[in-house]
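Lab notes, practical 5.
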Amino acid sequence: MDSYGEKLQQELSYTRFDQMAERYPHNTAIIFLGQHFSYGQFKELSERFGAALKEMGVKKGDRVMLYISNSPQWLIAFLGIQRIGAVLVPVSPIYTSFEIEYMLNDSGAETIVCLDTNFCYVKEIFDKTPLKRAIVTNLADLLPLWKRFLGTLFDKIPKGKVERESWVHSFCSLLKHAPLDASQEVDPWKDLSYILYTGGTTGMPKGVPGNHIGMTSYVNDVTEDVAGEHLLEGRDVYIAVNPLFHIMALGLCMAIGLNKGNTVVLMPVPLVDAILESIEKYRVRWFLGVPALYRMILENNRLDRYDLSSLRYCYCGGDVLPVEVYKRWKERFNIPIYQVYGSTEAGHVTYSRIGGEPKPGSIGIPLKSRVCMVVDPETLQPVPQGEVGELLVTSPYTIKEYWNKPEETKSSYVTINGKVFYRMGDFVRQDSDGEFVYVERSADIIKHKAYRVSASEVEAVLQDHPTVIGACVVGVPDPKVGERIKAIVVLKEDARGVSGAELIRWCRDRLASYKVPSYIEFRDMLPKSKVGKLLRREIRDEERRKMKKE
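Output from the prediction step:
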């Protein structure tokens, strides 16, 4: 083990949070809907939640699915799960029962933490999965009684019906009755911290397992090498807008916020005016957004009403920021937007460095714990500097396989000179300063509102429809959302009266809203290679040529 690995072993993300709680017990850790939670309070709540899980029978290595929106409960559960050596399985709160059923069965999770508004989905699939228990909460559960009363009175707090069953438990009740702590020692190299799900190339999502030291490696890199002296320990403010089930959002929340004794302003949903008001009120200095959010802020006709002068360090993740959005932001606020780039499999990979002017299209420089190569996608041989190739990434600290998916592992990971690299599927070039410049992505991945949507997953759902015999899904460029999802569909010869609207409804019942196609086009056949492989890139290029003509 190298000296950096030894250092990381001593500073795991949740133990670093504990150090901050000891150092700054009265500092505000989280602000949520105006309510402040101190570090000391938050530490105790996470200890109680971990102990409650242990009392219920959750053991080290057991998977716990987190199916809730950004909230204090999300972070309390995350820290509590880590404390007892259990494995976090975070999923989007807008997933359907169809999606979570698959992920529960694939991960083997026996425990789920869900919102009361999602409880109906959990109940629907409970008997079809390994689930033994559900822990249910409402977004406002940890707010004072008067805030909950007013929220209910003015119908501002969504509320779902929860039926009393032996397997249903209240999040708040567990916190009240649990012993103070039941922490478990973990092996940071061997023990899993999380399983995150990402789009597959063969239809269904893939589980990406991450160990404790792998997560700590990129969180520590961001804290020390990217933020460095610009980050004011115990005195800074970060606003968490992006959903925490996303690896980029959780990593920044820990690196800039909870691992440095700073305040995290936690937004339950990304409403532009609420974000701007919070930046002004709490004097936020650090911000992570996606390109669509930056554009929405700039186009907000009430922007002049807000004082955003506290903002200093703005990062963009999820997709490459359009040059015109960058220029408008720089002109409006006189500060740059820095780029962050990574993936579920590789973690955080590259960052723009603070101080310099980010170059157009640049995704930054690799973090200390990441090794990058640009190769010919066919031969896997390195290309000369400045030439375009596929980006490969490795790190000595990460797990290099998918959960229960040997074939997917084989197609996505390659061994070069004794090291296992992940194929990012993105095409880049490296300039003379060592920065990577983004060129294009694989045709298999669509970037919609900064979500990575697997084209094959949407195709698989469409092909489950009884009248569909073939489907090809591509991204159509759109300046507001990155790409819109378009499906080209071939129906059976005897299909009658099947409309695009019906197929969109079919998808909506089985996929999260951001994966649902915006357009359906019917054709007699799809382009395929001599061996029968769908030529998705050919259709994508055809769609782009159509746009240019228009």
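Observations recorded by the TA: The radius of gyration is 23 Å. Residues 39-55 form the longest helix (17 residues).
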